[in-house]
Amino acid sequence: MNVLDTAPDARVGIDVGGTWIKGALVNLETGAPAGEVLHLPTPAGGTVEAVADTLERLVGELGAPGTAAGVAIPSIVQQGVAWSAANMDHSWVGLDVQAHLGARLGLPVSVVNDADAAGIAEARYGAGKGRGGVVLVLTLGTGIGSALIVDGTLVPNFELGHLEVAGYKAESVASAVVREREGLGWDEYAERLQQYLSHVEFLFSPDLIIVGGGISACSNEYLPRLSLRTPVVPAVLQNAAGVVGAALQSAASRVGPLSLAV
Ligand code: BGC
Q1: Start-end ranges of CATH 3.30.420.40 in the chain?
Q2: What gap in Å lies between CA 12 and CA 223, rounded to an integer?
């Protein structure tokens, strides 16, 4: 079943990142934000309550009272409960974030891992649209997020940013933020990505790798320097993928597990 047959309207999509919290009303037929994507700074410390205050403000500014919302967070999420907290306060871990934010915002809320949100958005509307087989979406940002989609169905919480390569956690040496922090040139950065992606390719043999996150805007700098047997393409929705996917997840969670109907 295509989820959009059941829920063809708009949803609020919110992406909670380490630096910005982004939100938009998303048209689920096109996958496009219905207006501007609003950005509010992530409160220092990233506690649940401070983030919930920011979400309240964001939902108010979007001006869509009562519209169901999807919230993407940088955590492992099972049945609405967060089981990790990357670059966020530890108060998220073990919390039923879905129930908590639903009560705070007074809306039906569904919560999803941020990379999974980006992954389903790319699979449904972007670079993975209509692709069967094994599609791996990697987001290069503060950390490295990953989403695995097999014949249009998401395998949730696929934490490949934490894979160890040559003794280092991948996201601690090859994320976009690490590139900036260490002042790496594109050749040096591409070498690190090459080592990581070769290992990922060897372990999972994906049919397609989609690279997203903030750095997808300059993919012409590093993609041509990579050599893999798997096609590697930039994300189409770029930095809006998390917002769009969160909105899509909010519609899907009302009709059962998400199948992207490839
Ligand atoms: C987290 C993932 C998240 C990724 C991108 C990682 O550190 O463990 O859950 O998707 O960062 O934010």
Answers
A1: 3-116+240-255, 130-235
A2: 32
- Where does residue 230 rank: exposed (0-12), middle (13-18), buried (19+ CB within 10 A)? middle
Task: Provide the pLDDT for residue 130.
Answer: 94
Tokens of 30: 């096109």
Q: Whose CA is nearest to atom 4 of ligand 1?
A: 145
pLDDT at 4: 32
Domain 3-116+240-255 falls under CATH 3.30.420.40? yes
Distances (CA, A) of 86 to 46, 92, 141, 203, 212: 10, 10, 12, 24, 18
Give the closest residue (by CA) to ligand 1 atom 8. Answer: 86
CB of 145 shorter than 6 A to ligand 1: yes
Over residues 171-206, the pLDDT tens digits come to: 999 999 999 999 999 999 999 999 999 999 999 999
Q: Which residues pair with 144 in a beta bridge?
A: 140
Fold of the domain spanning 130-235:
Nucleotidyltransferase; domain 5 (3.30.420)
pLDDT digits (tens, 9 = 90+) for 104-135: 999 999 999 999 999 999 999 999 999 999 99
Residue nearest ligand 1's atom 5 by CA: 145
Q: How far apart are CA 128 and CA 235, in angstroms?
A: 9
State mean pLDDT over 12-38.
Answer: 93
